[in-house]
Amino acid sequence: MVKSPRHFIYYILLPLTAVTLLVMPWLGDYQPAWDVIFKPNSDHLDTVIFWEIRVPRVLLAMLAGMGLSLGGVVFQAIFRNPLATPFTLGVAGGASLGVTLAIFLGFNLTFLGISGVSVAALTGALGSIAIVYGIARSTGSISPNTMLLGGVAISFFFSSLILLLQYLGDMSDSFRIIHWLMGDLSRASVDTLFQILPFVTSGVLITVFMHRELNLLSLNDDLAASYGLHVERTRMILFLAVSLMIAGIVTVCGPIGFVGIMAPHICRLIVGAHHRNLVPASILFGGVFLTLCDTLARTISTSAEVPVGIITAILGGPFFLWLLFRNGRREASLADH
User: Fold this and answer.
1) Distance (Å, rounded) from C-alpha 337 to C-alpha 277?
2) Cβ atoms within 10 Å of 146's Cβ, excluding its own
3) Residues 166, 179: Cα–Cα separation, whole Å
4) Which of these, 93, 149, 233, 314, could form a disulfide with 155 (CB 3.0-4.6 Å)?
């Protein structure tokens, strides 16, 4: 851990975020002229590529990475589980099932300018959130373990339904479903930015405002209650706020895995576990991380773009194994003492 976490945030992460936003739109197979930044309204090819394709995509990656990373921080705190991710509670599974149904049934209508697939994804994600919430409420007390296990069970159930629909569908539908499930930012546009912005903004504001509550929830319920915290209500507020944020992100970008587990843990090693520092650090680091991954995904091959979800999975798999090994050694060390 660094001696001054605030200095790391202000003097390293903030400048790194600014540099990433300024540099990444210029990287790609086609190099637009530098003066394109002064011609945002031109219909020239350079302007279209820079302002209508690359800039929205970089901004979308930054927003999505911020939200996914923040989701990991919150879920790991409220469930006191270092392996909890934004997708643990079945939000991604619900969105994926909604998209699969929309493609399978040929649902091509638009609603308020939003594609039918996106509407189906959001509906599925919200349905998943409602089911998990209902399971938690039905037990009488909102237990972290009940919510966690309920979310995992729902994810497996939705995954089985997705496989069934893929099997019953034709080849073109199956390809569209698989491509969406990989997690991809190629659909980025100004419209998608406006779709995702309210979800990420609301999730960030609520979490930043409640960072003290996160510190208490990450310890234990009895201690949090002794400080006057209404544990169940606070946990549910954070769960719903972050789940809605993740639902909005997945609706636009698909399920991009491992960002919510890698970014928070890397930041935790650097700035410590106090959420006053961990929340802003994870937000900035997650945005930079996903933007860099997406830049790699769209430039690594000249023949075709690689879905960014593949890049994050390649990086996240070994990281997840390392995290399991590290936590296992820590538990063994505590048991010996």
Assistant:
1) 30
2) 17
3) 12
4) 93
CA distance 93 to 87: 8
CB-CB neighbours of 59 under 10 Å: 21
pLDDT of res. 335: 60
**Across all residues in the chain, what is the average pLDDT?**
89
Measured CA to CA, the distance from residue 245 to residue 227 in angstroms comes to 28
Do 95 and 122 form a contact (C-beta atoms < 8 A)? Answer: yes
Helices (H), 182-307: 190-209, 211-217, 221-226, 231-253, 259-271, 275-299
Residue 74's contacts (CB-CB under 8 Å, 6 or more residues apart) are: 207, 214, 238, 239, 242
CA 224 – CA 286 distance, rounded (Å): 28
Position 196 scores a pLDDT of: 94
Q: State the Cα–Cα distance between residues 105 and 127, nearest whole angstrom.
A: 18
Count CB atoms within 10 A of the CB of residue 242: 27
Q: What angle do CA 97, 100, 101 make, to 5 degrees?
A: 85
CATH number of 5-336: 1.10.3470.10
**Which amino acid is it at 141?**
S
Report the distance separating Cα 238 and Cα 142, nearest Å.
13
Q: How far apart are CA 57 and CA 313, in angstroms?
A: 20
What pLDDT is stored for residue 66 in this prediction? Answer: 98
Confidence at residue 145, expressed as pLDDT on a 0 to 100 scale = 80
Burial of 322 (0-12, 13-18, 19+ CB in 10 A): exposed
Rounded Cα distance, 79 and 43, in Å: 50
Strands 114-115 and 110-111: antiparallel
Q: What is the per-residue pLDDT for 112? A: 66
> 67 with 245: CB under 8 angstroms?
yes
pLDDT of residue 309: 95
Please give the pLDDT value at position 336: 61
Segments in the chain below pLDDT 50 = none
